[in-house]
Design a protein that fits this description.
There is one protein chain. This protein is mainly alpha-helical and 295 residues long. Among the domains are: 23-52; 105-154; 172-263, Four Helix Bundle (Hemerythrin (Met), subunit A), CATH 1.20.120. The protein is built from four helices and no strands. Helix 1 (18-198) packs across helix 4 (246-263) and helix 2 packs antiparallel against helix 3. It starts with 17 loop residues before the first helix and ends in a 32-residue tail after the last helix. The model is unreliable at 267-295 (pLDDT under 50).
Length: 295
């Protein structure tokens, strides 16, 4: 294209009027407002959908899954506890079976011993039967001998009656002799007691008095004599006076000794005492009978 060719310039567009500009602005505002309302509606719909859909989805899907998981955990715990309980029961049953097996073995052993005992009893029964036959034979022989002994029994009966009469005569004398020996033993204990009190040995003195009291009780049961009761009272007073009042105890022992001496067939001399009431062993010998067992 040559430089001389004239260029065509576009014609300027006419400027819009104020009303056109106002109407176009109003139309733009309305469009913007419509878009804004549309966006707000869309956002509201989305928010409403989320507000109602999320709890619904939680109730329909999440909550059942959570409940299911909780139930599964509970079932697992129950299964574990039941499995442990079953294991314990199995162990207990195993122990019971072991004990039952041991008891069965013990019963078998006992049955074996009882069977052996029964066999032994059977053998003994057979032996007893043989002995019974032998005894029957011996009884027949003894029957004949009994007839012969009956005659001797009559003579023995007469002899026994004579011996019974003689024994009745001697029984009273033997009882009297036993009582005299017991009295001598009590007097011996009283003499030792007086010596022990003189030595200040009140413990042994009390033991001697206890022995004397036991013998006096036997004498009172054997022969109800007033002298035995009075002597027992004097011995009890002497025991009560020890160890606080040995002089009083010596006086009571002196009285008891005299009462017992009066019951003997022959009077025994009373040992001399010092002015303080203590016996003097060297001044006069006290008769010491041979100790005999307590009746």
């Amino acid at each position: 294209m040559s430089e001389n060719t004239p260029t065509t310039q576009p014609e300027p567009s006419p400027k819009p009027s104020f009303g056109e500009r106002l109407s176009s602005a109003f139309v733009g505002f309305v469009r913007f407002l419509a878009r804004l309302v549309l966006v707000v509606l869309i956002l509201g719909a989305i928010a409403a959908a989320l507000y109602f859909a999320v709890p619904y989805l939680y109730r329909q899907y999440v909550q059942p899954l959570h409940d299911l998981q909780t139930r599964v955990d509970a079932l697992e715990q129950q299964s574990a506890s039941r499995a442990e309980q079953v294991n314990r029961q199995l162990l207990a049953l195993q122990d019971d079976l072991t004990r039952l097996h041991e008891q069965q073995q013990a019963l078998n052993q006992q049955l074996g011993k009882q069977q052996d005992a029964l066999d032994g009893l059977q053998s003994r029964l057979e032996a007893v039967e043989k002995q019974t036959d032998a005894l029957s034979t011996q009884l027949d022989a003894l029957g004949k001998r009994v007839d012969a002994v009956s005659d001797d029994a009559a003579a023995a009966q007469a002899t026994a009656e004579a011996l019974q009469t003689a024994w009745q005569d001697w029984e009273g004398r033997l009882t009297e002799m036993q009582a005299n020996l017991a009295v001598l033993r009590v007097m011996e204990s009283l003499t030792r007691t007086r010596l022990l009190i003189g030595q200040g040995n009140y413990g042994l003195a009390r033991d001697e008095l206890l022995s004397a009291q036991a013998t006096l009780r036997w004498l009172q049961q054997t022969a109800s004599t007033e002298a035995y009761a009075q002597a027992a009272d004097q011995v009890s007073l002497a025991a009560d006076a020890l160890p606080s009042a040995p002089e009083v105890a010596l006086q009571d022992l002196e009285a008891a000794w005299r009462l017992l001496a009066e019951t003997l067939p022959q009077v025994t001399a009373t040992p001399e005492t010092t002015s303080a009431g203590t016996p003097t062993p060297g001044a006069q010998e006290t008769p010491t009978p041979t100790p005999t067992p307590t009746p």
